[in-house]
Amino acid sequence: MQSKATTVDQYLASLPEDRRAAISAVRDVILENLDANYAEGMQYGMIGYYVPHKVFPAGYHCAPKQPLPFASLASQKSHMAVYLMCVYGQPEQEKWFREAWAKTGKKLDMGKSCVRFKKLEDVALDVIGEAIRRVPAKAYIEHYESVIRPPAKKKAPGAAKKAPAAKKAPAAKKKPAAKKRA
Q: Where is the composition biased (Basic residues) (predicted)?
């Protein structure tokens, strides 16, 4: 559920006390481990951590006016969630994340990037912090650009040019349909 809050403080103030405490604790861990080139603010109706336009002017390819999302934190209808784009689409990061979480003995409830939890005790805060710390903005941008705009394939030196396609013979003309008599 998207919030109408325009600031992080407004968002937190709108939450019930138990959720405010849990979201604030996860937020503190994120902020302690966040690279200086990221920013915090409201994005998509939740607390967002993103690469601001001053660092990455192109913005998010789906909505270039939006800064590039990195992580988010939200209170949803039936759970709370931290969204980790730094884990999504990066098999080596996801593998590390799942293994590190498993070592904590806590149950992981995770989608592609979404780690869902009902109470703070369900969260491996040290793993969340390390996941954030492991991906500085420069590395995140490089990965993002490699996926969004893959490098052009270089032709091998001396590679022959592709022969032009053979011209097709003109199609045979159809006879006009016979007129029906009345």
A: 170-182
Domain 8-148 has CATH 3.40.50.1370: no
Q: How many CB atoms lie within 10 A of CB 59?
A: 17
- CA-closest candidate to residue 124, choices 137, 140, 111, 109: 109
Distance CA 142, CA 138 (A): 6
Maximum CA pair distance of the chain? 88
Residue 89: count of CB within 10 angstroms of its CB: 13
Q: Which amino acid is at 85?
A: M
Does the pLDDT value for residue 144 go beyond 70? yes
At 56-110, the pLDDT tens digits run 888 888 877 889 999 999 999 999 999 999 888 888 899 999 999 999 999 999 9
CB atoms within 10 A of CB 58: 15
Q: Global pTM? A: 0.78
